[in-house]
Every structure is written in structure tokens, then in C-alpha cells.
Amino acid sequence: MFDIDAWHEIWLTIARNKSRSLLTAFGVFWGVFMLVVMAGFGVGIRRGILDEVEHFEANSTFMFSDRTSEPYKGFQRGRSWNMTTADLAAVRHQFAHKIKYSSAVLWGRYSTNNVVRADKYGTFRVMGFEPDYNRINPMRMLQGRFINEIDIRECRKVCVIGKRVANDLFAPNEPIVGSLLRVNGVYYMVVGVCESVSKQINLFGDSEEMVNVPFTTLQQTQSSGNQVHCMALAADASVDVAQLEEEVKTLIKARNNISPTDQQALQSFNAKQIFDMFRALVVGINLLIWIVGLGTLLSGVVGVSNIMLVTVRERTQEIGVRRALGASPWVIIKQVMSESLVLTALAGVLGLLLGVGVLVVVSQVVAASSGDMPFRDPQISFGIAVAALVVVIVAGVLAGWLPAKRALQIKAIDALRDE
User: Fold this and answer.
1) Rg (CA), the chain
2) For residues 148 and 103, is the Cβ–Cβ distance under 8 A?
3) In Å, how far from its chain's centre is CA 236?
4) In the predicted model, is pLDDT for residue 80 greater than 80?
5) From the CB of residue 237, how many other CB atoms can be counted at a distance below 10 Å?
């Protein structure tokens, strides 16, 4: 039942010493404010790092050939070699039950002003891919389509260009799909324009500054034979990509007369290990944020508890009179703990509201920024806000418990003698 007289008394007690009450509440206010702001920044870091790579096939590996570092079967160390399309076919056949997506990768020759359209030209990276590459490392199609199986099979001279390539070589509102570009001396028809889904992942360079062509077409136009510069593999979710990586390496080394212990000849990049490291980093950052935030809040709660002890000491006679008039222990405990709870709750709610307001402003500033920063939308969830309020309520109860126990120890006769 709501007792307006009790609440009026609580408010008068708090307002009796305004400066002390404000300074005491400020500790809780600042603790909640810092907890909310740091939690929001933790969310912003998580979204900036992890949400951008959520479309990337994390359970994937990329393999590159390099010079051998050990002699083997009559071959000297330092031998130069390349993977081939036959190696990729063998991998696809033997590990068909484990591989979700696979793509050969070939990089084109790099030269100054290698991409030309009419009187416009630029220097861009040329890459040869298969259709599955866009499923392993997705690119968002702005116009047209990506490379398909027919392009690969018929070695079509088509290309998909990045957004910045299109901006440099085409005027605004000018039709792009269907236009011709001269790439390293060979004419290609543009079938699509793409942009990066993630600004943080650039495996072979910025995809927005690339000209992507069918892998088989690039093999022919630059006389690369059956070479494969990189093999991109994405494993099924139930498959350990690290184990698949070692099994594929063993097969390729055996096919190319490379020592099984040669670590340099066939190198690889395991995306899952990198992503797991990022996830662990984000968890560590969030844990540190909560430790620091709760520590700051705890210091404010300790301040409230100390002030309530002082208040109880100042009100010794009042409490003694209450006890002498028959006030039960529960009435004394409720009075002291209610004062502590009201003080911490008010300060906590104000800290929560200001913290959320700061996060809204920061979110708008970040959204308006054109920079590709690994930080996005630092807004706390409803669950975190509720958790913060629960922490404040629990803190208010704990802050008042010790002073309440101290008040119960006051005997009426001793209190009345106190001066």
C-alpha cells in the first residue's frame, strides 16, 4: 500500500542536506552513465567488426603456391611451381562431401592505365574468378550480374567492374552495363557493377577498384595455361576447415612432388581462425567494459552507503525515539533502505537517460560520417537498459542494508542519552 507520509518523510530527509545528497547521488549517476556509454561503445565496436563480415564465409581457406624450401624426389629446393585446374578438379572430386563452395583465382597483369574507355582511363587490378567466389566473399551488385557458369565454360569476354571503376570511367546516369572496356589490351563487355559488402575485408585489394573477369577467359588472354594462383575453398558448417585445409594440402603436395613437410611451398590463409580471434577480442573488450563500468558504479554505491551511515549516526536520537514508541525493526530497516533506494534510483535513471542520449548523438555522427571506421550504431539494447536498472535497484538495496543494520543496533535508552 502506498504511504504518502512515508515518502514525504524520505524526501524531506534527502532534501535536508542538498549538497551532500547531490554529491552522493553523483557517484551513482556517473557510474551508471559510464556503464551505459561504455556498453554502447562495446556494441558499436562489435557491430563495426563482426556485422560487416557476417556475409563472408568464415569457414573458408585460401591457398597460394610459393617456392619450395626442401629438396624432394630429385627436385632441388627453391623450385617454382603453380597449382593447376587439374589440382582444383582433384580437390573438388575427393572432398565433394566437405566443400560447400570453391573457386579458382587468377590475378591479371598489372600495368599503368591498363583499363581504358574512350578518352578515359585508369589503373585498376584485374582478377579472374569463378561464380562461387561471390558466395565466399560476397560483393553487392549495383547493376547487372556477376560472372556465371556460361561465362566460364565459353570463356566469354565479359567483366564486372567495381563502383569506383564505374565512377572514374563513366559519367553520371550514363549506361554502364553493355559498354565495352579495353582491359590489358583486350575488349570486354561490362555485365555488372558491384561494391564491397564489407569495407574491412580486402583479400586481393579493394573490390570496388577491381575489374573481375571469368577465370578461364583470363587464362586465355594472358596465356597462363592451366595455372591457378589461388584456390578459395569454403567448407560446410559441420566441417572443421583447419582439418580440411591440411587434407587438401597433402593432396596437392602429393600431386606436385612436394615434400609433405614443406611449409613454405603451399601456404594458406584460414579465415575462421582470424574471425575467431576477432570474436574473442570483442568478447574481451565487452568484458573489460563491464568490469570497469560496474567498478565505477560500485564506488558510487560505496559512497551512498557511507553517507547513509553518517545519516544514521546523525539521527540516533530520532531512531531511539521511534524504537521507544514501539517502531518494529522492519519499520526502521524500511525507512533507511527506502532513502538509499530512492537516492540511487533517481541518480541511476538520470545516468541511464543521459547515457542513452549521448549514444544517440554519437550514432547520428557516425552515420553521417563518410569514413570506413570499424564502429557502427553504438545503441544499447532494451535488455542492457533493463539490466542497468536492475543493477541500480540492487545497488540501492545493498547500499542501505549496512546502515539499516547499524540503525537496528541502536538501543532506545542509549539513543535518548546521546547528545
Assistant:
1) 34
2) no
3) 23
4) yes
5) 10
Q: How far apart are CA 72 and CA 258, in angstroms?
A: 6
Neighbours of 38 (CB within 10 A): 22
Exposure string over 261-300, b if 16+ CB within 10 A, otherwise e: ebeebbebebbbeebeebeeebeebbeebbeebbebbbeb
**Which residues are paired to 75 by β-bridges?**
72
What residues contact 44, with CB distance under 8 A and at least 6 apart? 362, 363, 366, 375, 376, 377, 378
Residue 22's contacts (CB-CB under 8 Å, 6 or more residues apart) are none
Contact 69, 263 (CB under 8 A): yes
3-class SS at 227?
Answer: strand
* pLDDT recorded at residue 194: 94
Evaluate whether 98 touches 244 at the Cβ level (below 8 Å). Answer: yes
Amino acid identity, residue 359?
L
Class of residue 112 by CB neighbours under 10 A (exposed 0-12, middle 13-18, buried 19+): exposed
Question: Left, alpha or beta for 356 (phi > 0: left; psi -120 to 50: alpha)?
Answer: alpha
- In this prediction the pTM is 0.70
Q: How far apart are CA 129 and CA 114, in angstroms?
A: 19
What torsion, rounded to 10 degrees, do the Cα atoms 234, 89, 250, 70 define?
Answer: -120
Under DSSP, the state recorded for 207 is: G
User: Which percentage of the chain shows pLDDT scores above 90?
Assistant: 39
Buried residues in 313-346 as b, exposed as e (16+ CB within 10 A): eebbeebbebbeeeeeeeebbbbbbbbbbbbbbb
Residue 360 to residue 40: CA distance in whole angstroms: 10
Residue 191 has pLDDT above 60, yes or no: yes
